[in-house]
């Protein structure tokens, strides 16, 4: 468990991380997302003390990171960077074994560990163990980067945009590897990205950051269905080509052709219910009554209202296509 309590990071007088508080659970795949400069890398690097925090505290398993021996802390937290940080003139095995070597593992244990890890990512150990890293493709190198972070079996792995330089197919395949490894090996992963689709693919929970602050923390579903504010909505709109805000019945009530007050009702719905709920209700009843949360009044909605609403949406969409 990693706990941030009111953490600040200042450069001169500017806070680049501001009053940051949250808990990352053990075994969780936690994604930090936000635009460039929002403080993601700074937040990540404060966990393994590559950057010192200015105020507040970060604890791992209830113990403040400043109370850990620094070397011990770093060795027990795996770290994967965007720019492949392998040593190009060393072999795959030598790269994987950097931390186990420092920890002075037995030779046999190290050999077996390389075999096991390469097998886990479908790279034949006998083919790849002695290859120079510089002879591998970018995707293979980053796969070794991931394996290397796992080598000494750390409980926590930090990843800073590790796949952002890869082509989409290689990226997907590495995302699948990492998700599977995380589940099999039960690691806590803190993963930084600026790619919303990647965050959705990977994260158990996602934290949306902006200018050093948290805009929203939740599962992908929670964030997609209930974006907390305009920043998150805009981030979803620009980051996901097929994103559509979920419309609610209130969107229909806002139309000027809905005005009839209702006395009798065949079905009752709340204005915050989805349009899907309204469609289902109207398939069973020619009209339904809705209590409007905004005006407090009760209004009657008919099938005609719904069809008219959908038709207008379609026309707006068609008109918008040309504007790209
Ligand atoms: P992200 O990873 O989200 O792109 P960073 O955490 O790298 O953002 O940076 C957050 C902010 O802190 C940026 O505005 C950046 O310019 C600033 N920053 C980062 N490192 C330093 C530094 N060493 N000195 C001054 N400002 C810095
Ligand atoms: Mg960064």
From TrEMBL:
Keyword DNA-binding: no
Ranges where the ABC transporter domain occurs: 2-236
UniProt cross-references to InterPro entries, sorted A to Z: AAA+_ATPase, ABC_transporter-like_ATP-bd, ABC_transporter-like_CS, P-loop_NTPase
Keyword Protein biosynthesis found: no
Pfam family, one: ABC_tran
Key words, A-Z: ATP-binding, Nucleotide-binding, Transport
Highest taxon of source: Bacteria
Signal peptide: none
GO molecular function, one term: ATP binding
Entry similarity comment: Belongs to the ABC transporter superfamily.
Protein name: ABC transporter ATP-binding protein
Record organism: Alkalibacterium iburiense
